[in-house]
Amino acid sequence: MIRHDMMVERICRCAGRGGTVARQTERHVGVGHASAAGIRHSLFGKRVGKQGIVPTGLSWPSLTTRLGTYGDTARMNATQFYINGTWVDPISAVRLPVIDPATEQGFAAVALADDADVDRAVRAARAAFPAYARTTREERLALLLRIVEVYTRRMPDLVAALTHELGAPTGFSRDPQISIGLAHLEKAVETLRTYRFDHSRGTTLIAREPAGVAALITPWNWPLNQIVCKVAPALATGCTMVLKPSEMTPLNAVIFAEILHEAGVPPGVFNLIQGEGPTAGRALAAHPEVDLVSFTGSTRAGIDVARTAAGTVKRVLQELGGKSPFVVLPDADLARAVASCTGIVFANSGQSCDSPTRLLVPRAWHDEAAALAREAAEACVVGAPMAEATTMGPLVSQRQYDHVQRLIEQGVAEGARLVTGGPGRPAGLNRGYYVRPTVFADVTLDMTIAREEIFGPVVTIISYEDEADAVRMANDTQYGLAAYVHGGPRARDVARAIRAGAIFVNDPPMDIGAPFGGYKQSGNGREYADFGFDDFTEIKGIVGYGGAEG
Questions:
Q1: What does the pLDDT read at residue 66?
Q2: Among positive and negative, which fits the CA dihedral 129, 154, 65, 14?
Q3: Contact present, 236 and 135 (Cβ < 8 Å)
Q4: Comparing C-alpha atoms, which of 357, 7, 47 is closest to residue 181?
Q5: Which of 12, 229, 353, 380 is catalytic?
Q6: Which residue in the list 319, 375, 453, 527 is annotated as catalytic?
Q7: Could you tell me the fold of the domain covering 53-196+209-319?
Q8: Domain 325-508 CATH (choose: 3.40.309.10, 3.40.50.460, 3.40.50.300, 3.10.180.10)
Q9: What is the mean pLDDT of residues 9-17?
Q10: Catalytic (active site) residue 353
Q11: Model pTM score
Q12: Domain ranges within the chain, ordered by starting residue
């Protein structure tokens, strides 16, 4: 699962400490590489500094203080569902502990929906649809603007929750994890102001209308990014919805529901249930009153969602797994390219769908690239998320930890050269799902670590002979979510040749209006800005509309 997402600012402090890698210059405003002084750039026009994005007039209390303020309400609401404008007790009595990945201890509980809970939420959304679908652009704009206002005020609570449940370092939770949600909301406002719902071709009216009731199933790794880039276009286009976030990171979704409630979203338009994919997720995909499913997660789970939804022929939008290449061309700045690649991979503890874990370099540069990647990995500070010096927190769960450990061990067993890192926890960390930032060299495409999505802080270095060989290797994967290219004029041609939905050339500034989505087994449909709006609408052609005025 991913999501991970490459449209966000990258916090690459691991690659910014000392040595050759650290001597790269700050490049584009918005790329988000942080220097040793902790300065970072922001795309969102807010006041920034060592604490990241701080909207004007908003103070950031200590995380401990915030945990005390948000905790009681969010924990209580996590054992309920938000349906038809109110918090209700579940029909199901099943609860699941929410685990802090830094301590491996439970600190809250979340209710798990069954089929009856899902049905109640879907029917609330269905009942609210006719009236909400008739709201005007101006009414929906006003609603989104109120959501932006409340979201901005609640950002410290979201940061505290996410740091606790995901294990992301506090600074990374704040910027980009939570700030990206605000960016999507602001982009939805901008898009809605000019989005073309109707246009004419002769006397035929081409109308884009709300798709209906949307089931939104989101992952744990970039939770607010994925929640907002589904909820915002659904609200903007007149859809009603049921959100099922990951049961591993439920509290940020609870706070988001509180935000929508305070902003005045009409009852039934937005509904929140919690639950596991094989039960609640499958029930949503199968429900006959759901018109559209927007799913972000693993390719395996996405296949199951598509099969389940096929029985009612509903639209299924999917953002799935990835195994993104980072192609370094012979005329690239190698130190800059390696710093960029490792910074992206090690950010979010490697838990991003678009993470470029395949670093493709000219054969003559292989050993130098390995040395640079080693330096970046060993500069990472792995530790407690609330510690100021920490640049990498734990993985999200025991299952994820075991998965990454298995693949690291398999890389060693299959003959890849372990440059740094390897199995086990970093020194001094005996509790928590912490992983050693790992670099493999002399990797070949037949190795498991070159083909499977690792979803951890692991870089694999692969040599190529020439440009054609690099393109062939980049495309030799079942995935096609993203790719990165560094180089001179030929970089654009290489980007065009790679079969992936989003390509990033030479560390461009973040563009939250660019489409995001995959080729091949990385999914279908596109998210962000007007592309996301399109996917939440149906197209109607009314022939003769223009000639019926008289």
A1: 54
A2: positive
A3: no
A4: 7
A5: 353
A6: 319
A7: Aldehyde Dehydrogenase; Chain A, domain 1 (3.40.605)
A8: 3.40.309.10
A9: 40
A10: yes
A11: 0.90
A12: 53-196+209-319, 325-508
| Residues shown for the chain | 550
Quote the CA–CA distance of 357 and 344 in Å, as a whole number. Answer: 9
Token pair recorded at residue 186:
């602001």
Write out the two tokens for 213: 């009731």
Q: Would you state the pLDDT for residue 525?
A: 95
Residue with tokens 């710093």: 339
pLDDT per position as a tens digit, 215-267: 999 999 999 999 999 999 999 999 999 999 999 999 999 999 999 999 999 99
104 is an active site residue? no
CB 298 within 8 A of CB 320: yes
Q: State residue 24's pLDDT score.
A: 32
Provide the mean pLDDT of the chain.
89
Do 53-196+209-319 and 325-508 fold alike per CATH? no
Residue 284's nearest CA partner among 120, 450, 72, 424 is 120
Which residues are bridge partners to 271 per DSSP?
Answer: 242
Taking only the tens place, the pLDDT of each residue in 116-151 is: 999 999 999 999 999 999 999 999 999 999 999 999
Q: Which residue has the higher pLDDT, 183 or 39?
A: 183
Quote the CA–CA distance of 214 and 216 in Å, as a whole number.
Answer: 6
Tokens found for residue 484: 């990165």
Using pLDDT thresholds of 50, 70 and 90, give the confidence band for residue 64. Answer: low
Task: Please report, in angstroms and rounded to a whole number, the separation of the first and last CA atoms in the chain.
Answer: 55
Q: Where are the beta strands (DSSP E) in 71-191?
A: 81-83, 86-88, 95-100, 105-111
User: Is residue 346 helix, strand or coil?
Assistant: helix
* Residue found under tokens 């740094």: 420
